[in-house]
# Entry
Amino acid sequence: MDANMSATVKACRAFAVEDIQRTWCEIGPTLVAIAACQVVLLMPVAWWLRVPLTPLFALLLVRGFMFYHDMLHGAIFRRSPSGRILLKTLGLYFLYSPSVWKARHNAHHRRNSMTDAREVDGQIPMLTLDCWRDLAPTKRRLYRRFRHPLTVACGYFSYFILPIGMSLRRTPRVHIDGFFWLLWQPFALVMLWLTLGWSSAVLGFWLPIFLAAAMGSYLFYAQHSFAGVRYQSRADWDYHYAAFNTSSMFDMPNWMHWFTGNIGYHHVHHINARIPFYRLPEAMAAIPGLQHPARTSWSAYAIGYMFSHHIWDDARKELIGYAEAERRCRR
# Structure
């Protein structure tokens, strides 16, 4: 780690301090809004009210998920049992139990974008050209499906339920709480259907969660698969290099930064995951070393790039598409 990077990492520590009053002021109104939206959507409301309220509820759930995410990183509510209980209750919407989320997400941070010339670690798979060259046709098809835009859009199943199920199958005793987290939602859906009807159960409960999961899946996908990303091999891998070079700044309007809990400042978060979500913009504004990250956005170009570049060429240090990968494999 060079001197500038080291100074930036050190400067970030000053922002890894929670202001508990600000935490409550940020979280309290959002939780009230989430509760209000959920109550209204469970009622037999008219379509003209449900249409705008459903995506609003989904956006509020994305913000709520970032609270849950920060709590499990120890960025907020470090010394507030009541706050942690509140967010763990909210966490039931997100399927991931605390033990499963911490195990999978902390592993992502520990090995962020590491490659041993075979595979890049993460929830969303990324293969190197060498691995792609040796991969069986059936596994190539599976890989392409897993990085398909429709798979990301259906992240509720592919990036939430599937990884949770894999964790529970591999280490069931470690993640015993995960069984309850995974099963309560279908149980709640059935109970709501039987008591309030399919409209309230599906459109007022499940659909907003599905939409929130789709947005969260895309954010995760985009912030580690952008133009200019630079992965490292296992032998050369460095945590802070990965934070600076394989985590992007997501450019979006201020209102979207609010709904996404400032997770768009992703390079800052990866440098120090204990910085509270509301201090990420402060850190970037105050520290020169954070002010020139690689960027991504909601633009058509950024989206097109991410869904057309899927293979990491470790020799040339660049992301390439499937067609180019095939050409290079034939050489």
The CA atoms of residues 102 and 175 lie 10 Å apart.
